[in-house]
Amino acid sequence: MTKILTAIALAFTMTGSIFAADGKITEGSCCDKAKKAGKECSHPCCVAAAKEGKVCAKCNK
């Protein structure tokens, strides 16, 4: 039981870590290219971050 709870907690921690709290889009990232084209980035990680009002930390390092 504790192994399952640990795995679930780890999954939530890892999921939360892909979202950047500062909301800065890095020049040249997929999000930046989409924004310059007048669109929203369609990468699943970026879409999930946008729903949280943030940007994807994985794509905007």
Write the layout of secondary structure elements.
Layout: H1 2-16, E1 19-20, H2 30-36, H3 44-51, E2 55-56
Antiparallel strand pairs: 1-2
Commentary on this structure:
There is one protein chain. By secondary structure, the protein is mostly helical. The protein has one domain (2-56). The protein contains three helices and two strands, in the order H-E-H-H-E. The protein has a two-stranded antiparallel sheet. 16% of the residues are buried. The model has no long low-confidence stretch (mean pLDDT 82).
Q: What descriptors fit this protein?
A:
3 helices; mainly alpha; about 60 residues; single chain; about 50% helix
The helix-and-strand class reads mainly alpha
Instruction: For the record, give the distance between the C-alpha atoms at the N and C termini, rounded to a whole number.
Output: 36 Å
Average of the residue pLDDT scores: 82
What is the helical fraction, as a range of percent? Answer: 40-55%
Radius of gyration: 14 Å
| Principal-axes shape call | elongated
Strand arrangement across the biggest beta sheet: 1-2
Total helical elements = 3
Helix-strand sequence: HEHHE
Give a quick account of the main beta sheet: strands, pairing sense, barrel closure.
2 strands, antiparallel
Record field, number of beta strands: 2
Strand content: 5-15%
Count the domains.
1
User: Runs with pLDDT <50, length 5+?
Assistant: none
